[in-house]
Write a structure and sequence with these properties.
This is TIGR02444 family protein. Pfam families: DUF2390. There is one protein chain. It contains 8 helices and no strands. By secondary structure, the protein is mainly α. The protein has one domain. The longest helix has 28 residues.
Amino acid sequence: MSKALWDFAVQLYAQPGVETACLRLQDEHEEDVCLLLCAVWLGWRGVICTPARCQQLREVAADWQHEVVAPLRALRRRWKVAASQDAGLAALRQRLAELEQDAERELLRRLEACCAEWPTQASGEPLTWLTRLASPTTCAAELTRLAVAAGR
């Protein structure tokens, strides 16, 4: 896996079952998948998980997710049915999906910058970061799927 967060996230997302797990976490559990991908990356790199670090990451992610990513995603979803019958709207919806991905990439860049100075160890535990950054009610199966995929 790559050491840069965006590249790591792309490689992890391509692992079997990860895309499905991420979409379930996002759609059914309303999780910030970028934050969770960062959690896996930090665990994979061996960064020690502390409450203060978790709080820093949540603060970086919250505003960007709320102000940028979520509105783009909501609009893209609202246009889904209408775009299936309107080629012009379908093209705009595709551009909106690209903007949403760009916004997620920027969020991952910001998260990486936030933790750039945190020291790493020889080995880590992605599940520790995941369980601390995910909502307590989130399904453990999806979180475990992410952690296992990072070990490949």
